[in-house]
Amino acid sequence: MSTLVGMCLNGRYRLDAQIGAGGMSTVYRAFDVTLERRVAVKLMHREIASDSDQLERFRREARSVAQLSHPHIVGVIDAGEEDGRPYIVFEYVEGETLKDRIRRMGRLPVDEAIAYAIEIARALGAAHARGIVHRDIKPQNVLVDEEGSAKVTDFGIARSLDEEGLTADGRVLGTTDYVSPEQALGHDVDGQSDIYSLGVVLYEMLTGDVPFHGENQVSVAMKHVREDLPDVQVMRPEVSARLAAVLDRMTDKDLPQRHRDAAGVELDLEDALAAEASRTGTSTGEATAVLRTLPADARRRLPLRLRLRVPVLLLILMIAVAGAVLYVLFDQAAERAQKGTGTGVTKAAPGERIVSVKRTSASDYDPLGDDKAEHSDQARLAVDQDTGTAWTTESYTSKVLTKPTGESPGVGLYVDAEPSVNGRRLEIQTPEPGWKMELYATRSEPPESWPDNSWTRVGGDTVDKRKQSFKLETGDRRYRYYLVWITALPPDEDQVAITQLTLSAPKE
After folding, report:
1. What is the CATH topology of the domain spanning 352-506?
2. What's the start-to-end Cα distance of the chain, in Å?
3. Helical spans, DSSP H, in 178-321
4. 37-41, 403-407, 419-423: which has the minimum mean pLDDT?
5. Cα(425)–Cα(415) distance, rounded to whole angstroms?
6. Does the N-terminal or the C-terminal CB of the chain have fewer CB atoms within 10 Å?
C-alpha cells in the first residue's frame, strides 16, 4: 500500500503518508489541493472492494458519519471512488489516539479520564440520537487533538438501528477487549452496547490496562459475558466511590441495570467530575476545559477558583488592597488603549459574539510583491470601527493584480485575533463591492511565501452589495490569524478598499 503515497485521487486529494491500516482499508494523511488543507483519506483495499457486502459496509460508514456534526466526532468531508476503489475523506486531526496516550502516560489523571469519558459520551449521544450505534468504541478509535480534546472516529462497523441484512445474528463485530456481553453473544445491539464499551475504556484510562486478558479473542469475549470487571478501587485506590459506582453501572451485564442512554452517562460523569474537582481542589489537562461546560447544578459544587476564570487571589487583592484595585484599573485602561473601539455597530448573529481586537492587529500581506508591502501604514484603519477610514490596495493600472513572481495574482489583509478564536463569521465592509477574495486562517505566524500549507482555507466568495458577511468553515478549530486574500479587483476599479473587518466567534 505504500506505493500509493504520492498519487492524487480524482485530481484533488494527494496521498502524502500512510498513518493507519486495517483489514478493509488504509488511512492516509493527504492534502486537498483544491481547498489547500490537510485531510485524512480512508481508501478501501482493492481486493475488499470486490466484496459487495464489504463495499456496502464501507459506503454505509460515509453515509452514517456524514449525518453527524459534533465537536467530538471526526467529520466526513467528501467521498468518492478512484479506479473502482471507494474512499472517504475526513477532517485531519493532528495529535494522537487515546490508546497512544494511555501507553505513553500509563494511568491518566482521574479527572482527565472522566473528562475524556464525558466527551466520548457526548459524541455517542449525538450518534445515538441519529439512530447510529458505533459498535467499536475503543481508545484506538478516539483521537486527542493538539488542544487536548477527544474526537471519536472510525464508524467502519457502525450500523443504523433501522438497517438490516448486513450483520447476521451470531457474528461478533468489534474489538473483544471492549466488547459488550450482548455483542459477544451475537445478539442485536443498541446504544447500551456502546455505553458498556465506553465503561471499559474509562476503566483502562483509570488503571492503565484492559480488564480482561486471555489466550485468544474468544476467551476474552467470554470473560465479558461471565465475569465482573475487577474492582477499579482495588486497582487504583484514589478512585472515588461515586466514580466507581458510575463505572459499575456503565458496565453492568444486566441491561435493565445499565445506563439506558448516553445522556444518563454524561450526567453521572459530570457529577463525578465536579465531585473530583471539589475533593482535590484542582483540575488537570482536558478536565479544566470540560469543567467549564458543566451544567449549573454541577458547577455549584466546584471550589470558587475553579468556577471563576479570575483567580480568587486576584479577587481578594482587588477588594482588600486599594493599590491592587488601582493597578487593575490602570491595566484595563492600558488594554483598552490597545483595543479597537469595542464591538462597534456590527450586530452579532444569534449565538455569536463580536471579537474585539487590538488597534494594531491588522496587517497588510503582499508575499508576491516586490517590496512585500501594501500600504502598511493604513492597515490599522480596517479595524478602527470608523467607516470613514479605509485600508486600500495599491492601484493596478491594468485592472488585474499583476505580480512579478508569476504566481496566481493576489494581495491581502489579515487580522491577529490573539491568542486565538474559533472564528465563525467575517464581515467585510467595502465602499466599492464586486471584488473576489478567499479567506484563510493559520495558528502560526503568517509565512513570507505564497502559497504555503500553513494557511487553511476557511471560505471565500465575491464581496458585493448583498453579501459582505461570510461564514468561516473552521471545523470548530481555533486560529490566531484570519486572512482576506484578494484575487480580483472590482469592475472598472483599479484598487480594493476595506473600511472595516469584523470577526465573530461563538459565545463563551
Report:
1. Jelly Rolls (2.60.120)
2. 45
3. 181-184, 191-207, 217-226, 232-235, 241-250, 262-280, 286-291, 296-299, 304-307, 312-320
4. 403-407
5. 13
6. C
Which ranges of 251-340 does DSSP label H, i.e. alpha helix? 262-280, 286-291, 296-299, 304-307, 312-320, 322-338
CB within 8 Å of 61: residues ≥ 6 apart: 88, 155, 156, 158
d(CA 469, CA 464): 10
Predicted local confidence at residue 169, as pLDDT: 39
Catalytic residue of the set 136, 252, 268, 416:
136
SS3 99: helix
CATH architecture of the domain 95-307 equals Orthogonal Bundle (1.10)
Label the pairing between strands 479-488 and 362-365.
unpaired
Residue 154 catalytic?
Answer: no
Q: Is 492 left (phi over 0), alpha (psi -120 to 50) or beta?
A: left
Cα 135 to Cα 184: distance, rounded to the nearest angstrom: 11
Q: What CATH number does the domain located at 2-91 have?
A: 3.30.200.20
Radius of gyration of the chain (CA): 26
Angle, alpha carbons 28-33-39 (nearest 5°): 35
